Amino acid sequence: RKEVEQDPGPFNVPEGATVAFNCTYSNSASQSFFWYRQDCRKEPKLLMSVYSSGNEDGRFTAQLNRASQYISLLIRDSKLSDSATYLCVVNGEYNFNKFYFGSGTKLNVKP
Amino acid sequence: NAGVTQTPKFQVLKTGQSMTLQCAQDMNHEYMSWYRQDPGMGLRLIHYSVGAGITDQGEVPNGYNVSRSTTEDFPLRLLSAAPSQTSVYFCASSPVRGGPYTQYFGPGTRLTVL
């Protein structure tokens, strides 16, 4: 079983739409959770960390559900520039220095 | 700050050749790591280091060596290249203190092994 699983998409949405991605993880003792964004043929860049109480950064909201072992990312008022692949990242259960990446969810925002 | 730099950007090797991928960061980060990214797969951790002189294996360490003699540099050595090592390699660094590790990635090295 993969450590982190994501729906690969693609999610095709119009500008202005609200879109949500989920990610499930297998290590119940994981402590650190992140969403990264990766543009085509570029390096991943941190979008936001995910905190237990949930957190918001502008149009982006991240939630953590420890009981069900999933994290979510909500993007409101989608922009063309949001088109990218979104990677879910979780640290290891027995070694918090190890990080596991999901394979990513591709988002296409259309005009 | 240059951030995280990687060289070379592209490399073609023949099976059995060895080479070193270079990674450097100028942010005084303690944590550094190497990942590979294959089509349709997420990044997989190869090796990581939490400080100079300290390295450990990640998820897919076979065929790769690392060393960390300084805080700034974390080279990745391919001992005897194989076609299965064709991939995009990313180096990343992170501060350790002050909360969750927020990793900063270099631009990547695209490696093809023939």
Q: How much helical structure, as a percent, in the residues of chain B? A: under 10%
Write down the secondary-structure element order of chain B. EEEEEEEEEEE
What is the CA–CA distance across the termini of chain B?
Answer: 36 Å
Report the span from N to C terminus of chain A.
38 Å
* Annotation, overall tally of beta strands of chain B: 11
Stretches of chain B where pLDDT falls below 50 for ≥5 residues? none
Order of helices and strands of chain A: EEEEEEEEEEE
User: Number of helical segments of chain B?
Assistant: 0
Q: Largest interface, per-chain counts?
A: A-B, 23 and 25 residues
Oligomeric status of the shown chains?
heterodimer
Task: Sketch the major β-sheet of chain B.
Answer: 7 strands, mixed
Structural class of chain B: mainly beta
Question: Would you report the number of β strands of chain A?
Answer: 11
Mean model confidence by pLDDT of chain B: 94
Proportion of strand residues of chain A: over 45%
| Main sheet makeup of chain A | 6 strands, mixed
What's the alpha carbon Rg of chain B, rounded to whole Å?
13 Å
Unreliable runs of chain A, pLDDT <50, ≥5 residues?
A: none
Detail the topology: elements first, then pairings.
The complex is a heterodimer of chains A (111) and B (114).
Chain A: E1 4-6, E2 11-14, E3 19-25, E4 33-38, E5 45-49, E6 55-57, E7 60-65, E8 70-75, E9 84-91, E10 99-101, E11 105-110
Parallel strand pairs in A: 2-11
Antiparallel strand pairs in A: 1-3, 3-8, 4-5, 4-9, 6-7, 7-8, 9-10, 9-11
Chain B: E1 4-7, E2 10-13, E3 19-25, E4 31-37, E5 43-51, E6 54-57, E7 64-66, E8 76-78, E9 87-94, E10 104-105, E11 109-113
Please name the defining characteristics of this protein.
heterodimer; A: 111 residues; mainly beta; six-stranded mixed β-sheet; five-stranded antiparallel β-sheet; 0% helix; globular; B: 114 residues; seven-stranded mixed β-sheet; four-stranded antiparallel β-sheet; 11 strands; 49% strand
